[in-house]
Amino acid sequence: MDDDKLTAARNHEFHRSVAPTGLPEVRGFDPDADGWDLDAVLGRLGTTGAQATHLSRAISICRAMRADTECTIYLGYTSNQVSTGNREIIRWLTQHKKVHVLLTTAGGVEEDIIKCIAPFSVSRFEEDGKELREKGLNRIGNVLVPNDHYAAFEKFLLPILSGMADEQEKTGVVHTPGDLIWKLGAAIDDDRSIYTWAWRNRIPAFCPVITDGSIGDIIFFFEHQHPGFKLDLVAETKRFHAITLDAKKTGALILGAGVVKHMILNSNMLRNGMDYCVYVNTAQEFDASDSGARPDEAVSWGKLLPDAQAVKVFADATIVLPLIMAGAFRE
């Protein structure tokens, strides 16, 4: 190889650069310099890079929305957050009125109540599905729930549905899924329950897909014995949008994606965008799903304001939410 080619190769390798200015130095948590204090760990997230920096931004945004006294804060979460130990964090946020509106899926309702009746168990992702089915055990990731728990839930739910059906027949009032959620929380009356605290603190809890789970199956069988029983999704949507439109400012912490992410954002499109928003999920945007969409896509729809404080943390919420709590919700 001649010298000219070697020189050219070297020039390609060491192409001259322009030094970045105004940017922080990459520096992670150093136990020798920082000690082992939790605040020191959280304080280094912002300069660590990768998703740690996004997590630091999420903590800052949650602090900002909490400090903004005009901000109505939505907490959206998929059912797996309640299946796992994040349920205790969501209960604490509801108990201490750290959030103003809850929105979840059917599993996010029923599994909170079921856990008040009987516990779930930590297992393995690798459990054999055929063997579990023979044993009557349902797997949610690496969490196991005996099928008998759902039978116990049906026994608990049926008297509540009967009371709602009687009221509907006598008065013509058709209850909403949110009404049902509060009734569940009141009936279980358990300090461990998210919805007991939602009922006690009058925090509205919404579930636009209430029939997509065990609750829906129980309602399906119940309606055959009580023809004409209904839940009013139109009234539920109207109430949800009214909260959004009446708010001076809005912010959200959304754990997971799908309907809980879309409904919160879509409602805020009616007011031309949310002021603060944190997504925590592992979905990618490359299939054009709303689940995977990053905040900038929501700006294009008018779901987030162009100058909104917003970030997406690509991570498992069971890891991230405890850190967000420690960084933004302790006080």
Structural account:
The structure is a single chain. The chain is built from 16 helices and nine strands. The chain has 331 residues and is an alpha/beta fold. The protein has a single domain, classed as Deoxyhypusine synthase (Deoxyhypusine Synthase), CATH 3.40.910. The longest helix has 25 residues, at 147-171. The model has no long low-confidence stretch (mean pLDDT 95).
What can be said about this structure in brief?
With 331 residues, the protein is α/β, with parallel strands linked by helices. It is built from 16 helices and 9 strands. β8, α15 (295-301) and β9 (304-314) form a beta-alpha-beta unit.
Topology:
Elements: H1 3-13, H2 31-34, H3 38-43, H4 50-67, E1 71-77, H5 79-83, H6 86-95, E2 101-104, H7 106-117, E3 121-122, H8 129-135, E4 137-140, E5 143-146, H9 147-171, H10 177-188, H11 194-201, E6 205-206, H12 214-225, H13 233-246, E7 249-255, H14 259-269, E8 274-281, H15 295-301, E9 304-314, H16 317-328
Parallel strand pairs: 1-2, 1-7, 2-6, 7-8, 8-9
Antiparallel strand pairs: 3-5, 4-5
Helix pairs in contact: 4-16, 6-11, 7-9, 9-10, 9-12, 10-11
